[in-house]
Amino acid sequence: MDRQMLRYELNKIKQMGLLMEVNNEVDPKFELGSILKKYKNRRPIIFNKVKGYRMPVCGALYTDREVLYKLIGIRHEERIFKLMEAIANPKPVKLLNYGPVMENIITGNVNVRTLPNPYFHEKDSSTYITAGMLVVKDIKTGKRYTSIRRFQVIDKNKISALIASPYLTNQFLEMEKQNKPLEVAIVLGYDVPFLLASQVSSELYGVDKYEIDSAIRGEALEVVKCKTVDLEVPAHSEIVLEGIMVPNRREKEGPFGELMGYYGQQGIHPIIEIKAIMHRNNPIYQTAFPCREEHLANGLLREVELYYSLKRLVDVKDVHVTLAGGYRFHAVASIKKKQEGDGKTAIIGALSSIKDLKHVVIVDDDIDIFDMEDVELAIATRFQASKDLVVIQDACGTTLDPSHTLRGVTDKLGLDATKPLNNERFERCKIPKV
C-alpha cells in the first residue's frame, strides 16, 4: 500500500510545510552535503537536480524529534511505552508477489556508481552510501536483522561494509568459517517505522526487526522476495542492492567524516559484491549526512533502555539522550527524589545502562530536561562538585569518541544536580495563572 515507505512520508513532510525543495543543480561532491550541514541536518531537503545524475536525492528527513513523532502518530510522553510495546509484541509481515520496488530489475552489468552517492568531506576515501539499511537473515533462526551501515564505493559492483555491530560481525565470521558468503540486501527509501525497528538491539531482545516494524506502524510491513538472494525487502522501498558479503576478503575502508565531526580511522573491512539492483520507476535516492537520521532513532531506543534501567532504581520521570552528544555520549534524567541517595543511584544506573554513555546529569522533576537552559540552571544552583560529582575512570566507551580511541578506555562523569529534600530555599518562583 502506498502509505508505506519514503514517498508517502515525503508527502507528509511536504504537507507539514517542512520540506525544502532545491531546484538548482547541486554537485554531489561536497555541495549537497554542505547544504544539509548548513541547516544543521534538521531541515528535510530534496534536491531535484543532482549534477551528473537523473534521480533526485533527499536527506535530513528524520532528524527532528517532533517531525518523527508526527510521522508515526505518537506524542512525546508516550514514545518510550509505544516502543517497548512494539518490542514486546511483534507483529507478522505480509509477503507480496510483486511490489513497486520490482518495477526495474538489473542483474547484468550492475553499476552502483549510477546512483548519486555523495562525497561529503575533504578527506573521505570515496563516495559513500550512508543511509543504506543492511538486511540479513540470522543463520540459525532465520529472523531478519536490519541495521544502517556505511558502504564505501570501490568499483561498479563492489562496495565495502563497516560491520561494527557484534551481532552482524559474528554472523559474517560464522559463515566465513564455512567459506560461505553471507547474503545481504541494502535498502534505500524507507520510512520511520523501518528506521526505528532497525535500532532495536537483536543481542538484547532476540527479535525479528521486520516484525518490530509491523508493530510500530500498526499494520503488516509489506515485503517482496529478492531476485538473487534469499531475503525479503520492503515492497515500497525505492532502491535495493542485492549481494553477498564475500568470505576471506577485506579491503581498506576510510577515512570517513563521522558523526561527531572527526574522521574515522582507516581499517580493513569486508567486501560486498553486488549481484542485482531493483528500483522503482523514477527512484528517489535517500542519503544521510553523517549521520543524524540513524542516530536520532538510535537515541530514542537508548532512551527506552535508559528509562527502564533507572525505573528499577528510582522514581524516574523522563530521560533525554541529547543531539549535541551524538545521541550516545550525553544524557539528562529527571527523577522524583524520595531519599538523599537517589541522585547518586541514578548516576550509577545510567552509566551502567548504555556503554557509550559518557556524561549524565540527574535533575529533579521540576526541571525541563529538553530545555538545556533549565538543565544548566539546575547545575548552577543545585550542584556542588565536592559532594555531587561522580567520576569513574577507565571504563568502556566507543571509537566514535577520539579521546577514547587514544587509550581504549574512557572516563565517565555523573552530576547529581538534584536539590536537597525538604529545603524551601530551592522552591522555584511561580507566577499565578492570570
Textual characterization of the structure:
Strands 5, 6, 7, 8, 9, 10, 11, 14 and 17 form a 9-stranded antiparallel β-sheet that branches. Strands 19-20-21-23-22 form a 5-stranded mixed β-sheet, with helices on both faces. A 4-stranded mixed β-sheet has the order 1-2-3-18, with no helix packed on it. Helix content is 28%, strand content 27%. The model has no long low-confidence stretch (mean pLDDT 93). The longest helix is centred in the last third of the chain and has 20 residues, at 292-311. Helix 4 packs across helix 9 (292-311) and helix 6 (192-198) packs across helix 8. 47% of the residues are buried. Helix 2 links the parallel strand 1 and strand 2 (45-47). It has helices spanning 6-15, 31-38, 65-72, 79-88, 166-177, 192-198, 202-205, 209-217, 292-311, 342-353, 372-382, 385-388, 402-407; strands spanning 20-22, 45-47, 57-59, 94-95, 104-106, 128-129, 133-137, 144-148, 151-155, 158-161, 182-188, 222-225, 232-234, 239-253, 256-257, 263-264, 267-279, 285-286, 316-321, 330-335, 359-364, 389-395, 410-417. With 434 residues, it is an alpha+beta fold. The chain contains 13 helices and 23 strands. It folds into 2 domains: 6-293, Pnp Oxidase, Chain A (Roll), CATH 2.30.110; 312-421, 3-Layer(aba) Sandwich (UbiD C-terminal domain-like), CATH 3.40.1670.
